[in-house]
Amino acid sequence: xxNAFASWSGGKDGCLAAYRAKKRGxxxxxxxxxxxxxxxxxRTHGLSAAVLRAQSEALGIPLIQRPTTWxxxxxxxxxxxxxxKKEGITDGIYGDIDLDEHRxxxxxxxxxxxxxxxxxxxxxxxxxxxxxxxxSGFKAVVVATRADMLGEEWLGRAIDEEFIAxxxxxxxxxxxxxxxxxxxxxxxxxxxxxxxxxxxxxSKVNRxxxxxxxxxxxxxxxK
Length: 223
Known about the structure:
With 223 residues, the protein is an alpha/beta fold. It folds into 2 domains: 3-118, HUPs (Rossmann fold); 126-222, Alpha-Beta Complex (putative n-type atp pyrophosphatase, domain 2). 31% of the residues lie in helices and 30% in strands. A hairpin with a 2-residue loop joins strand 8 and strand 9 (210-222). The longest helix has 14 residues, at 73-86.
């Protein structure tokens, strides 16, 4: 069984990709997430780094959080891959779906580190991916939206069949999985989880032209 890491934002696509990869025989030894220089937030999605650590604990998989600026993102990512390679990691799992430039990037930087990139969701329709995520038993909520595309009322919504229908009907020019960054999610439970996340206290804030569900208190609950 090959040792793998999963590129991790805390959201539905990366989680489903990891789930599929594990079912195909990869042993996920680490989750990997790039964070801001102060280590407070996920660099890509703005989610609290502490919440991601709680999620890692709920999953029972260690989380690597490497600080970086946007300017040094690729260089720091490569350093992280080199360190993982020294730990015996041979494979990387990514949740990309259909953006060619993303696939080209992960395959290039992974290959340069001697790590094989896997994209288990690649090329599937976004509706199929969302429905498979739900049908597999995962639970997730919306934690960020682009303010010019989705308002604050979408924050905290569960990813379910009603969400899919409403997004298709009410949100123009928004892809169902939010692959272009229209929204981001936090997975709180599912078949990979040993415990579930309970969001105890939240608020809604607008920052950098995005709405965020600010998670101020989170707890782990037995399943």
